[in-house]
Amino acid sequence: MRTKVKLGIDVFLEQHVHLVKGKRVGLLTNQTGANAELVSTIRLFHQHPGIQLTALFAPEHGLKTYAKEGERFSNMVHEETNLPVFSLYGASKKPTDKMMDEVDIVIFDIQDIGARYYTYIYTLAYMMEACRRTNKKMIVLDRPNPIGGIEVEGNLVSEDFTSFVGLYPIPNRHGMTVGELASYFNKEFSISCDLTVVLMEGWSRNMYFSDTNLPWITPSPNTTGIDMMLLYPGTCLIEGTNLSEGRGTTQPFEIIGAPFINGVKLEDGLNALKLPNVHFRATSFKPTYQKYKDELCEGIQLHILDRQNFKPLSTFTQVFNTIVSIYGDRIEFLKYESLKHPMFDLLAGNALLRKSVLEGNIDNFLEKCRRDTKEFIKKRAKYLLYR
Fold first, then answer.
1. How far apart are CA 129 and CA 149, in angstroms?
2. What percent of the chain has pLDDT over 70?
3. Antiparallel, parallel or unpaired: β 255-258 and 297-304
4. Which residues have C-beta within 8 Å of that of residue 37, sequence separation ≥ 6?
5. How much is the pLDDT for 2?
6. Which of 51, 54, 120, 243 counts the most CB atoms within 10 A of its CB?
């Protein structure tokens, strides 16, 4: 099948290899770094006579994306190339000067999923900072935003709530490619590194990943497909509670539940709201790991009826508000000694969502989302690389 879209990696190899001539190249990637024929970027670079690949850098989940969420891993040696693999999710999330000594240029080639919480975009930002600090060049090989480049939804992260799941004030669903985000971060947050973005050819903002005809490689263990990614800007917030977001099942972020929930009662309550472009179905599941491992949970599955018009965050806000109204005395917000705020608030980017739901009045939060989205759309306009 011919692809409609030519990836940044393919454009780079056809037109831009001269940018790295005579330079030691570091590659920040994982298993999603591959061309349209599914040949890995690591292999393509290692075997290319014009590219001197000297180091690999791995984000959360590792080079082969088998590590679970939050699971740290150490530096290692890449078996096929015998090159060092520097962990950017181990002792440090930021590249050290010693790591940067191995390279003159760093190239980023990783598939993002279009949500603020997804950590690869902050690993990119930290690498850009390291390149600025050590006077190295940064090249980003662009890839599609799999949930499109038009729709934007959510609130901006408040200053006191920044974290590795929300490093910058961008909305929950940002509608930008990694190349566009790199340009945005570089200017708006004064990283000011020497940055080049290699654009895709043939991608347009209204495309979902299924419109590209490109082969899909899952970027992390719980990233299963387009509906999951479209729900994720909303349902990821469940991670900050004692409810299961479906990790340890085949439908993570598409289902929400717990042992104390009555699925049919919740289905009826949610469908009675007549929320647009979604239907709720009672379901039961037993997670194989994480929350409620091997325990029977009941809850609901969210079925998207119209991808183009579905609003993940506003839908989730209504869902969570309903769950709290029924099971409020059973809902807990997870706290960790290492974190200044509850995890839910760090994901939400503020305390307003949690407080609004607990008070049974979500209108203030939804209004803030509308204002923040409008502000971000204006700011991002000059960084959009595709029309």
1. 26
2. 99
3. antiparallel
4. none
5. 64
6. 243
Handedness of CA 223, 384, 201, 152 (dihedral sign): positive
Report d(CA 323, CA 269) in Å as an integer. Answer: 9
Cα–Cα distance list, 378 to 73, 79, 144, 324, 348 (Å): 39, 46, 21, 34, 21
DSSP letter for each residue of 210-262: GGTTPPP--SSTT---HHHHHHHHHHGGGGGBSSB-STTSSSTTTEEEETT--
Torsion sign over Cα 73, 161, 144, 135:
negative
Q: Where are the domains of the chain?
A: 8-220+378-383, 226-350
Give φ, ψ of 85 to 5 degrees. Answer: -110, 115
CATH class of 226-350: alpha beta
What three-state secondary structure class fits 169? coil
Cβ(25)–Cβ(5) below 8 Å? no
Cα gap 354→342, rounded to integer Å: 10
User: Of 333, 339, 337, 336, whose CA–CA distance to 163 is shortest?
Assistant: 339
What is the assigned CATH class of domain 8-220+378-383?
alpha beta
Write out pLDDT tens, residues 126-185: 999 999 999 999 999 999 999 999 999 999 999 999 999 999 999 999 999 999 999 999
pLDDT per residue as tens digits for the range 186-240 = 999 999 999 999 999 999 999 999 999 999 999 999 999 999 999 999 999 999 9
